[in-house]
Amino acid sequence: MLDTKINTAKISIFIILISLLIFMLIPLTFSYTEEMQLRALISTQANINFKEKDSYVQSLTVNLSYLPTDDYRQTVLNITPAEPGVVHDGYVLFQYKDLLSEKLTIGYETNIITRFIRPRVRNKIDFPLKFIDKTTSAYIQPTANIDSDNPKIAKQASQIVDGVDDYYQAVYKLADWTQQNIKYSLTTFTENATQKSSWVLENRYGVCDELTALFIGMCRSLKIPARFISGVAYTSLIPPSGGWGPHGWAEVYFPEIGWIPFDVTYNQIGYVDATHIKLKDNQDSSESSTNYGWSSYEVDIIIGSLDFYVEKLSESEASPSIISIDSHFDQKKVAPGSNNLLVVEWTNNVDYYVVEQYYLTVPNGIEVEGSKRFNIMLGPHEVKKTYHIIKTGTNFDKDYIYTIPAVIPVSPIQNATASYIVSVGHDTYDQTYFENIISNEISFDIVEQKGVSLDCWSDKHEYMINDSGTLSCNISNNGLSYLDGIIVCQKECQEIELGITQTKVVQFPLDISSQGPQSAIVTLKNDETQTNISAQYLVYEIPELQFIVSQPEISAGIDEQFNIEFNLTQTDNSPISDPKVELVYDDRNIKEFPISDFNGVQTFDLVMDTRNLFKEENEIFLTAVYKDINGNLLTTESKIVIRFDNLSLIDRIFLFFRGLHF
Q1: pTM here?
Q2: Which of 288, 305, 299, 306 is nearest to 96 (CA)?
């Protein structure tokens, strides 16, 4: 029998899951420090250029609004402004009179305690929100740089949270997508001029302000209140080995909880670490830190950007991990060139939502399928598994047995480990084998809910025939998925798309060519549903009044009284307003009779005399004046003839002189 001896050795090739942000694309070394005491100097200079010998500055006022305030994660111990600054609620005011100096220092020194605290969201909040408080409603509106009303932003946000009915999970997925898909890039173009959120989405890169603005824009497009935070934080981008500098992150409003920080640049989701100093919250990412005004003659005043200096005075020990991790490889032994599956089981040990980040880095000879950086969200006391397919290389000596360990740091003082064996003679597993395992293990918490509502109304309830009118319809996405291909028809059709929580208004011209009650039927349909709704309105014909005179011709004697009897009758049912009757004689003698409570028929019995008449045959004109529902003035006329019979010569002479009098 041939005796074969195999030399056995263990060579440690590390697969490391790092629960810290120590990778090139993210400019941060995450601090687990629970509390820091910091000294910060925040200042700028005002440079004054006196252009003439008699130039002067009568007054200068500067309002510095970047100022730390107390909240649950930072305590301001003191603020000492430079002279002559005065600290107010939320700003420092500097006022100068009769300046002669060419340079002024504007700023303050502060001592502050910052803390690493995870806000406690213990219960599920339904998404989308059913109610937006008035105090936060401004933070769902678009602004100059955060153009959350851009259709591409709304579509992207809706697709990211498709099927999600948990508010925390929706915000988490938006933050995770931003961090995974938008590259931090300190280019001259974005560093010197802040770009709109829609630009960042299209170009997929930006600085911290722009990444944050896009995240906020996607939140607002889903009616999630979010605001921009200006402050200071520690970053590894400042040479030679890192330092403190200006930074921007977001805060998202959670009902009954308050504002919770999300830093998508540093991948701190649902919290920020103790290196963050909050100075101001803003509705937009480009709000100014200083506002100033002056009264002067032949002077240029330039106020520079803020400078930041931060010194760490003390810090506490690192916070203990609130996450437990257990890990194993699906196969204990594989052949060179085989795939394997690293299974990591995460346990949330607290009763509130937690987001952790980790990074998978591998040595030569080992490959990882897909991304190498990850976030994981855990609900209160939730246990969840993540899966990573590992491909073992072929460059292994056949005479050796190799142990491939995995080290998964949970915190600076805690980690989990797993390992598997690679040697010739063991089974080989392809990628599909493990993909099937993953698909059978993973349960999707996706809620299939698609709903669209339709509400239509006309711009008026009543129209005159042949008026112009508009039918408006609100189409609202009440579901949990982005909706496209929605067809809305009212004789003509329009096609629209709707993001989650979005409402759009479409308009159609109304048909007002026929008199009577009308109904405009609107149909909404897509691949999954069809809805019909009708809007009711009335069309009136032009209202018409007519006179019915009992005696169109009346004979009378000079200086006698006579009666005029007539009815004013409406021949249709169209509404009218302000009706009145005017009696006009010879364009000079006018009497008005306003009509109140006109019900379609009004009877007049007027006692007249002939003393105002000076012709043998006199015409008295009856005019009805009224308005239709649009306020248009309408009239109808009739006349009554009054004759003097059997006039003598003296009567005719009398009438002649009476006419001269009138």
Answers
A1: 0.80
A2: 299
